Amino acid sequence: MRRGFHHKRIKSLSFCEICKDLNLVFESNLLGKEVSVQK
């Protein structure tokens, strides 16, 4: 449970990367994984 605090810190550091990854996954699902293939 206390690990949440540590995770929160990491989340703030790599929030941009996480957002990009989520967007890539979402778009790849819509485009038939074309985005993930290009990556």
Describe the structure concisely for a colleague:
The protein contains 3 helices and no strands. With 39 residues, the protein is mostly helical.
Order of helices and strands: HHH
Count of domains? 1
Task: Please state the overall shape, judged from the principal axes of the Cα atoms.
Answer: elongated
Specify the structural class. Answer: mainly alpha
- Please estimate the helix content: over 70%
Largest β-sheet summary = none
Q: Give me the count of strands.
A: 0
Low-confidence stretches: none
Q: What gyration radius follows from the Cα positions, in whole Å?
A: 14 Å
Continuous helix count: 3
Mean pLDDT: 66
End-to-end Cα distance, whole Å, is 34 Å
Could you walk me through the main structural features you see in this protein, from its secondary elements to its overall organization?
It is a single chain. 82% of the residues lie in helices and 0% in strands. By secondary structure, the chain is an all-alpha fold. It has one domain (3-38). It is elongated. The model has no long low-confidence stretch (mean pLDDT 66).
